[in-house]
Write a structure and sequence with these properties.
Layout: E1 53-57, E2 63-68, E3 74-79, E4 86-89, E5 95-101, E6 112-119, E7 125-132, E8 134-140, E9 146-152, H1 155-160, E10 165-170, E11 178-181, E12 191-196, E13 201-206, E14 210-215, E15 224-228, E16 236-243, E17 249-258, E18 260-269, E19 276-277, E20 284-289, E21 295-307, E22 310-321, E23 335-336, E24 338-341, E25 344-347, E26 353-357
Antiparallel strand pairs: 1-2, 1-26, 2-3, 4-5, 5-6, 6-7, 8-9, 9-10, 10-11, 12-13, 13-14, 14-15, 16-17, 17-18, 18-19, 20-21, 21-22, 22-23, 24-25
């Protein structure tokens, strides 16, 4: 949703939105309510320092909520027609995309998708588009004019990254959207993830570790390879990328195998060089900068796996200064993300759909 990454989706219901219910395990379980007082100067902020919005779809809900990142107060945005619909919201919340796949009635895996874009205030549909194939990670540009996604020839292609590429629609005339970047133009290298840069520029990560930038204002994207991601020894690159608000840094995931696949968030320069480790808790992902670039919000989510016959689950959503390095959810610099639930500050569930837009 995620930015994704902006969207993540917004993952869950969502980019798209995580798809938030607490999950225990690993560290003794998430508390239902965090009674720790905010740092000095927090005022009425449940997440001191954070700015912007978190769009979230609670677990077992079809409602998309906008959560003020600082105060934790939420307001409803829209309700999905069903759990088959994914919702992706624009950065300012004025538009949202609704996506459903397997859209041929009565035929599963039909490989047809329907994309609809709506005006949030009026709920009027701006356009409807049906297409063959599969797409995910829909994300609006910061000015709402463009809508991007990663496309695949089919759902199976999404699982093995076959022929994946970036596609971008120009919504300047929303009744007649035009394609400005076609996934077939990205060449033979598959696209792992993408994000928006300032001035309607975009950046994506290819399977050969190349960082590619381009402009949605130019037909075909006018793409340029900016560099290659610096992957530390013993690690391999993940499928996510998130750009800082000023476009000078990237968040990427590096993975490693230790019985199970583990991963953490790293910071690189805009060309992929100078990789520095941000999170050290293992299973760190879904990361995004705050709108002012001062904080990074992410989750540590081990999921469920079997280790020595015992199932382990561990999941927390937290944030820390973007200048910090080698931090984890329990570091002195970090704090769990909260929101207001029935008027009280509660830990935002990790495994619900949420996207922090920068």
């Amino acid at each position: 949703m995620n930015k994704l990454q902006r969207m993540s989706a917004i993952a869950g219901l969502a980019l798209a939105v995580c798809a938030l219910v607490g999950c225990g395990g690993g560290g003794g379980g998430d508390p239902a309510v965090d009674t720790t007082p905010p740092p000095a100067g927090g005022g009425n902020a449940v997440n001191p320092g954070l700015t912007g919005s978190i769009y979230m779809t609670p677990v077992a809900s079809l409602d998309l909520l906008r959560v003020d990142a600082a105060t934790g107060a939420s307001t409803p945005v829209v309700r999905a027609p069903s759990n088959k619909h994914l919702l992706y919201v624009s950065p300012d919340g004025s538009r949202y995309a609704q996506v459903v796949h397997d859209s041929v009635v009565g035929q599963e895996n039909s490989e047809y998708m329907v994309l609809e874009v709506y005006d949030t205030a009026t709920k009027n549909r701006l356009f409807k588009l049906e297409f063959d194939g599969f797409a995910n990670n829909f994300g609006f540009s910061p000015d709402n004019r463009f809508l991007a996604a990663i496309r695949y020839p089919n759902r199976v292609g999404e699982l093995n990254l076959a022929e994946s590429g970036l596609a971008i629609l120009d919504l300047a005339d929303p009744a007649n959207p035009t394609t400005v970047v076609n996934f077939s133009r990205t060449g033979k290298n598959v696209v792992f993830g993408y994000d928006w840069l300032p001035n309607n520029q975009f950046v994506y990560l290819r399977g050969d570790r190349s960082i590619v930038t381009g402009s949605a204002l130019v037909a075909g994207g006018n793409e340029t390879v900016k560099g290659t991601v610096d992957v530390p020894a013993g690690l391999f690159i993940g499928r996510t990328i998130n750009a800082s608000p000023d476009g000078t840094q990237l968040l990427v995931n590096f993975n490693w195998e230790d019985g199970v696949t583990q991963f953490d968030v790293w910071v690189t320069a805009a060309d992929g060089s100078g990789s520095q480790r941000f999170s050290t808790g293992k299973y760190g992902g879904g990361a995004s900068w705050s709108p002012d670039g001062k904080y990074i919000v992410l989750s540590t989510d081990a999921g469920f796996y079997s280790q020595g016959g015992a199932s382990t689950a561990y999941c927390k959503r937290w944030y820390a200064p973007s200048t910090a390095r080698n931090v984890y959810e329990g570091s002195p610099e970090s704090r769990q993300v909260q929101y207001l639930e029935s008027g009280k500050a509660a830990v935002m569930p990790c495994r619900a759909g949420a996207t922090y837009l920068n």
